[in-house]
Amino acid sequence: MKYYVEFTQQIYDPEDPRTFKYAPPCVKIREIIASGMLGEIVTINHNENVLYWHFAHSFVRGNWRNTESSTFSLMAKCCHDIDLIMYWMGDHKCTRVQSFGNVYHFKESQKPEGAASRCLECPVEKDCPYSVQKIYLQGFNNAPMWPMSAVCDIEDHPAGYAVALKEALETGPYGRCVYSCDNDVCDHQMVNMEFDSGATAVMTMNAFTSDMRRETRVCGTHGELRWDGSSHRAIKVYSFATEERKEIFPDQIVPKCRIRTRGHGGADFFLMNAVTKAIAHHDPSLLSSNVLQSLTSHKVVFAAEKSRLEKTIETT
């Protein structure tokens, strides 16, 4: 559901996928770049580590597995990341993009010998890292939290939620073998971006990781910045001239009052905080994005996917 607020004939959307622009570490990185501390930006390397079982859950068995029924994985998972790179580059425009990627692993040709079409019936399930037994049932505490809540949203089953969840895995899409699904979205993809300043950026989306976080390295003519994707740990900056290493913390921290305020590393909280303040004070300057800006980064994402499919370099 979308909530629209009209300010000075512009529409702002709180569910805009530019959420990470409101995350305190991302705001601080933009400030560091704008300060000139790194000199002129030459390269940005940004990784979106999806986490192996998360990818299987959402992009192989789940709602975002198929381009025809939803969208391609770069749009579904990484429009945040392309937008972040453009946000950090400030007034410099992305002029060209090139992209590579495919379905490397989650396909029939990779299916283990003897594997069944449904996971709970599979004789080789114990050796599979994408086993639904491991992802949804092992260590289950009978609470319908994510990712179990995506599999089964029935909380009043007469035999209890655990039984309802197992039944959903026995018959529903989340119980299928990851090598026998109708998925067609990339499980890894790289996007190369060139800016009007001559700077370049690389964004890599990777399903095959042991954690679910972002990693960023920004290299300038005077220094280097590294961010480990954390909402609370320091952003590390190194000066070439002084050989000094600094640890710079975000100006704000994520409230600890409720777990829901911590979505996307706290970015969701700060996004909605900005929206409600903008509404209350009738002040659009409290928001960091509008639909026109969103359209610009979305166009780059679409251009990247076109490049991947057609093996071209696209002008943006």
What key attributes describe this structure?
316 residues; alpha+beta; Dihydrodipicolinate Reductase, domain 2; 2 domains; nine-stranded mixed β-sheet; two-stranded antiparallel ribbon; 8 helices; Gfo/Idh/MocA-like_OxRdtase_C; Gfo/Idh/MocA_Oxidoreductases; Oxidoreductase isoform X2
Approximately how much helix is present in the residues? 25-40%
CATH homologous superfamily title of the largest domain: Dihydrodipicolinate Reductase, domain 2
Beta-strand residue fraction: 15-25%
What distance separates the N and C termini?
Answer: 30 Å
Number of domains: 2
pLDDT averaged over residues:
88
Reported for the largest beta sheet, the result is: 9 strands, mixed
Q: Report low-confidence residues grouped into runs of 5 or more.
A: 1-18
Shape category: globular
Number of helices: 8
Tell me, what is the CATH class of the largest domain?
Answer: Alpha Beta
- Structural class designation: alpha+beta
Lay out the secondary structure:
Layout: E1 5-7, E2 10-12, H1 24-35, E3 41-49, H2 52-60, H3 73-88, E4 94-102, H4 132-137, H5 148-151, H6 161-171, E5 188-195, E6 200-206, E7 214-220, E8 223-227, E9 235-239, E10 245-248, H7 267-281, H8 291-310, E11 314-315
Parallel strand pairs: 3-6
Antiparallel strand pairs: 1-2, 3-7, 4-5, 4-11, 5-6, 7-8, 8-9, 9-10
